[in-house]
């Protein structure tokens, strides 16, 4: 929705995706990246997925999404999505303030889906949250609904992010 031209400008898309993950890695006090590897390829481990866990949700995370430089982005949609994300925190997660473990991103390569990797990545954060007696929070697309329901998550709100006047 936010990056409709990512296939037309893949170098642009990957440059900014890499920058986002660099931003996560540069903030170890805030984020933990848990990586899933496939070890069945001889001596070379192959990345199969990753989860980005936000362990300090109230700590600012300055990031430059490159709105004025990217060719793959729809700026209006991105701004609408970002605004909704900020509002979502206040309407759905604020009651826990900084006492929550938030799944910021979960990615599993299509070749490794439905093999337990996503469950492992999510359970890692669930275990951290349980040790602190904090809830795990996340925002999911419909694609993740089955996994999160399987793991015991409940839907506390549903929202549609949409630019006014668009049907997408």
From TrEMBL:
The chain's coiled-coil residues are none
InterPro entries recorded for this chain? Acyl_CoA_acyltransferase, GNAT_dom, Trichothecene_AcTrans
Concerning Pfam families, the annotation shows: Acetyltransf_7
Molecular function GO labels: acyltransferase activity, transferring groups other than amino-acyl groups
Query: Where do the N-acetyltransferase domain residues begin and end?
Result: 100-154
Protein's recorded name: N-acetyltransferase domain-containing protein
**Organism expressing this protein natively:** Apiosordaria backusii
Could you read off the lineage of the organism from its UniProt record? Eukaryota, Fungi, Dikarya, Ascomycota, Pezizomycotina
